Automatic annotation (TrEMBL):
<keyword id="KW-1015">Disulfide bond</keyword>
<dbReference type="GO" id="GO:0009653">
    <property type="term" value="P:anatomical structure morphogenesis"/>
</dbReference>
<dbReference type="InterPro" id="IPR043158">
    <property type="entry name" value="Wnt_C"/>
</dbReference>
<dbReference type="InterPro" id="IPR018161">
    <property type="entry name" value="Wnt_CS"/>
</dbReference>
<keyword id="KW-0964">Secreted</keyword>
<dbReference type="GO" id="GO:0060070">
    <property type="term" value="P:canonical Wnt signaling pathway"/>
</dbReference>
<dbReference type="GO" id="GO:0010628">
    <property type="term" value="P:positive regulation of gene expression"/>
</dbReference>
<dbReference type="GO" id="GO:0005109">
    <property type="term" value="F:frizzled binding"/>
</dbReference>
<dbReference type="GO" id="GO:0098588">
    <property type="term" value="C:bounding membrane of organelle"/>
</dbReference>
<comment type="similarity">
    <text>Belongs to the Wnt family.</text>
</comment>
<dbReference type="GO" id="GO:0048513">
    <property type="term" value="P:animal organ development"/>
</dbReference>
<comment type="function">
    <text>Ligand for members of the frizzled family of seven transmembrane receptors.</text>
</comment>
<dbReference type="InterPro" id="IPR009141">
    <property type="entry name" value="Wnt3"/>
</dbReference>
<keyword id="KW-0325">Glycoprotein</keyword>
<dbReference type="Pfam" id="PF00110">
    <property type="entry name" value="wnt"/>
</dbReference>
<protein>
    <recommendedName>
        <fullName>Protein Wnt</fullName>
    </recommendedName>
</protein>
<dbReference type="GO" id="GO:0005615">
    <property type="term" value="C:extracellular space"/>
</dbReference>
Amino acid sequence: MCGGRTEATAKPQPVASAGPTGEEQAGHAHIRGLTAWGTALPFEGQRIQVLGFTGPCALCTPHPEDLSLALGQQYTSLGSQPLLCGSIPGLVPKQLRFCRNYIEIMPSVAEGVKLGIQECQHQFRGRRWNCTTIDDSLAIFGPVLDKGTVSSSELGLSNLPTPSTATRESAFVHAIASAGVAFAVTRSCAEGTSTICGCDSHHKGPPGEGWKWGGCSEDADFGVLVSREFADARENRPDARSAMNKHNNEAGRTTILDHMHLKCKCHGLSGSCEVKTCWWAQPDFRAIGDFLKDKYDSASEMVVEKHRESRGWVETLRAKYALFKPPTERDLVYYENSPNFCEPNPETGSFGTRDRTCNVTSHGIDGCDLLCCGRGHNTRTEKRKEKCHCIFHWCCYVSCQECVRIYDVHTCK
């Protein structure tokens, strides 16, 4: 993509709650036997109505309805400052109750959504749709929920139309954000940052040969419960979109549980491993992102069916192609085709690909031919300062020179 050459060298530098309402009880839809219910679940000795979000990246995707996680930059580091639940825009009443009842885990919830956004951007970094957030602010909770117009006071931008779309990009955002919340809450509990959760002591069982239980097993069940309580709040309507969103939320959370593994550490003189202790641990979140990206590529297309029940019309989803294997709880589902994302289109949330950096040597989707949608590309030179000729000195520091390299940068017209 870029070629570089050294131009100059500088001097070396050393580098040193309440119960469910009637409306909430009525809101459910099905996906081939999987039911999207707005019901209360037991949580820390109480019964709290299911709470939720519908996706991160405000207006960064072709599915703006999903992106209910927009929060101003003053909240992007929630762990370092007080959190006032009432000041967070876009929370529905159930989310607000959750926030007030469990204020100490809300920074972890926010961090999980940020983690999901960042992983989304990594997985789609070379695609036409690249999960870009508004102003790259990694905004996290928010109001972009319904068809119509988003308030400029809430987003700090001019009003933009936000119609609902149910594409596979929407499916991925739901899954990765829900997984991110479960992951971050689980990790935070294991680190002892909250008094209402801690290590897992329920899934140990007898130790294996040559090792014993030790350390702090991560309680993924608790993280998944928090994610489910907070992430499914809006999905209590008897329509296809709620069923799709809840299914994909759960697929993301299930991925966390499926990837739990034993992590062990040896103890003894000179690493002799005389004693080995093991505990349950989550994988690196990159493994979760890679797995869900594969699920995105193989997502199942559905069709919407309507039927009448005693409480009114209910929409359900059915696999579009009977010859294909029906989707499982671990698969992503969608029922609307994606746009090509070549041109800006506020109705689909597409920012287009103009001025995007492309790889002139690639024949894949990140190459200039495909990424630029046949419009061609511009080339410019760019100077970058980099550390070079680094030397390790005993003991113990590293000194480097600062080199200026010239790169060719290619951007879409």
